[in-house]
Amino acid sequence: MVGGAGYIGSHACLALREAGHEVVVYDNFSTGHRQATLGNAFIDGDIEDSGKLKGIFKKYRVSAVMHFAGLLSVSESVSNPIAYYRANVEGTLSLLSAMVDVGIGVMVFSSTAAVYGKPDYSPMLEDHPTRPLNAYGESKLAIERAFPHYERAYGLKTSNLRYFNASGADPKGRLGEAHDPETHLIPRAFEAVSGGRPLEIFGEDYPTPDGTCLRDFVHVTDLADAHVRVLRRLEDGGESGVYNVGTGHAYSVREVVEMVERITGRRVPVKISPRRTGDPSSLVAASDRIQNELGWAPIHSNLQGIIESAWRWHQTGWHIGAAGDSR
What we know:
Largest sheet: 4 strands, parallel
Strand order of the largest sheet: 3-4-5-10
CATH architecture: 3-Layer(aba) Sandwich
CATH class: Alpha Beta
């Protein structure tokens, strides 16, 4: 599990263990947290260290890799594309080189709906044109485009999971979202109601019912389940694939704010700012393929349940200290 100490990766670790898999976490802990490994074997290392990766793969007899490592902020990718191509492209090529050298033939890849860009229609199918609006989406798409070549040359089977808005927290309270700085809408709203800075809403002039962006929020536990299912398919000899992972239903930023206020019983102070470069007005998934082929369903992904689980985590889980340390 590369990047398994991060938000989505750590939840996938839980799901894998519960499905009977042995998990080894490889992470440089630049954004992930040691607390999130929850007793799994873990190694502190960078994916650009191909030699170290090969040693770990051999030592633990790794048979498949789930790849969550990389950078993920749309706005940061616009201002600092070099970092995104270095981490998301060069880093992944280093990882793939180690896998090929050792003979690992299965990878589940953490991709993103940002590969689509501005939607031509909604909800979007997997064959929707890919025209990313930012370096984050471009860097992920570059790797997706490399996979067929690796499969032809080396037999590497891959599944690309294009997430929409990952959200929520482990229903049992073991894990949740802890970024520094926090960039995602729901935890930023919690920070605002807890005495932090007002929640910044980027744009209220989009062509949507209330002027704010529409997003498809999918619970992180449902995302983790999708990873287990596609891994099983690949290990059973299934073909490589691309899958949207979302609910097919969108909520606006203001609807999320209203639900946060309802669940917390507190007003969310907001600040309206201009649109961010690279933000489409709406992103909604058509996830029929993964539902029909793998039996996946977004069972935890209603907005109220997402925010309730995240709020419980915000109140009781470990979080980020002022120096960026987990506590």
